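In response to reviewer comment 3 from the previous cycle, which asked for concrete evidence that the modeling workflow produces usable outputs, we include below a single protein chain processed end to end. The sequence was submitted unchanged, and the resulting structure tokens are shown without manual editing.
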Amino acid sequence: MADFGLYTYQEEVVERALQRENIIIWLPTGGGKTRAAVYVAKRHLETTPRAKVVVLVNKVHLVDQHYNKEFRPHLGRDYTLVPVSGESEEKDFFGKVVQDSDVVICTAQILYNALTNTEETKHVELSDITLLIIDECHHTHKESVYNKVMRCYVEKKLKREHPLPQILGLTASPGTGGAKILEKAVEHVLQICANLDSAIVSTKNYAPELKKKVPKPIKTFDIVEKRREDPFGDHLKWMMELIHGYMNPPPDFRLRECGTQEYEADMVTLEKRGVREENRLLQQCAIHLRQYNDALLINDTLRMSDAYHTLEEFYTTTTVIDGTDIFLRGLFQENKVELERLAKDHRFENPKMAKLESVLLNQFGAGMQSRGILFSKTRKSTRCLNDWVVKNRALQEAGIKAAILTGAGNGITYMTQPEQADTIRSFRRGIFNLLISTSVAEEGLDIPECNLVVRYGLLTNEIAQQQASGRARAQNSQYSVVASKGGREERREKTNEYLEELTGKAIDVVQEMSLQEFRRRITELQKHAVISSKFAELCKTEKKSRYTASSIRLLCRNCFKAVASGSDIKLVDNAHYVNVNPDFKKNYKVGGQVMINRSFEDWEPGCTVNCNNGNCNLQWGFEMKYKEAAILPNLAIKNFALETPDGRMTVKKWKDVLFTVEDFSFEQYCQDNFPNLFD
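The workflow returned the following structure tokens.
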């Protein structure tokens, strides 16, 4: 192993994997888990007839990172390696790719799609794979895609179906699953082991070497005294009180404190209740109050101007339908000038921003080759922080060149996968020296030169905390928590430190179990998980058939006008819910062109679809051009209320509707809409 460059502690943790045992390697971030996995893969390929290695990751950018930095340098000369992600053409014939390759590195969703797809060129069987490596394997729980893959494995194992691949999991922290006591934390670790059908392995004999190789960053709590005065926030709260009076909340409903996540939850509940009770006044007031609450949360974390612009942006898109809208818009317009004046008064600016500035200036400056990651909660906050860095003279003079990194997806606020890759590449090369990132960069991102990690305005669990801390890889790195004195962020960070210790104790308990006891416990958990999964599927099926599609009416969520029947909705390519009724066009008008920075196999986006009832104009979705022929309104169910035989309801996602949506038939659509073609 020495010629491969493994440390002694890495040799220790791979030992059982080389004996073809299923194991989870537990090493801290930066401890070389991936390098150890590459070594196991190499030995496996050398010693296993018709070996087939599949490496699963949970973030798209990790496909290329593992391929370019770890697997290709060591295996590329002797074996065929292929990286596959959502934008790779290879995903469309994934079964063939697996068949023709020695090592495939892909996102877990791609493998799961292949396991459940019946098309020959796309289908893969678990028996085709001889070694399955699962990166960041602590995500193998509940309904995660990792666990869906492993549930296929566990079901086959319990039925004694063979062959099955060897499993190698990699994690820096299995976490406690929310448990606060040792017994429950042990149960959580055992559940992760059961889900992966693996024992958990860590270094026992070479811990000092590991500690020397992976020094922990210096942690600082950069605590800020609360604002002595907050006239901007106080004015927002006064406006919210006026809306409370106008709304007249139900007597059985107690509102919690403004400017908190709990208050936001209250507004979500009230909005749904307003829809259910056909009370548009209650519903709209709840929507607007949620925006004010969001502004208060931003005011607590970012600049006052960011909070003000959030509200201003919201009110440029709202429309007037009835007296409720007139009151709500009027209230904002009457107070707009005063809010803007207060937001520009720098005497009352957020003290956290000044503290964040000093933390950054301590690491960046003339002659300092620093590289940092600033973690923030939302895509919106990353944009606001980037704008602040660009406009801050002191930070610019210190040579800070910032870039945003957020999750991949379809939409204006998302990054495409190539944009993510370019940003990470530029950060590695030093073109940018500060990444302002959401949680997408917490796991797996390997920048050895990174010497500063700042967590700003975050409330996360112990796993996310450890992962973020592990991004600071350079010697004498700093891990800073910027938070208000006695605030929730500071308390959560301290709690997470305790939970990190508890995780270690729980793993010790599991590792000290006899092999017989360990196997008995995980087999019990596996049987229970399979039964629970089947029961959940049964409930889901029953739920889907509670109502007939024709008995459901879709109502615009803003104006409550009935616009479609459930039977008008069809499912395209198991992904898009479209309205195939040609009469539906009477209910909407088209807006601007939707821009998605990627191409799709069978369709392309068209214009937005908006409610045309009076002044409503609520955006419902967008038109999609399917197979060059069909123009189909692709609808988001969150923009509609559902009128059911038992009353009104709302759902966030199509998977939660209580009726069955039939698959779209392109042939049937053409027969209905272009009958002349079939004469």
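Residues 515-544 form the longest helix (30 residues). We consider this sufficient to address the reviewer's concern, and the full set will be provided in the supplementary archive.
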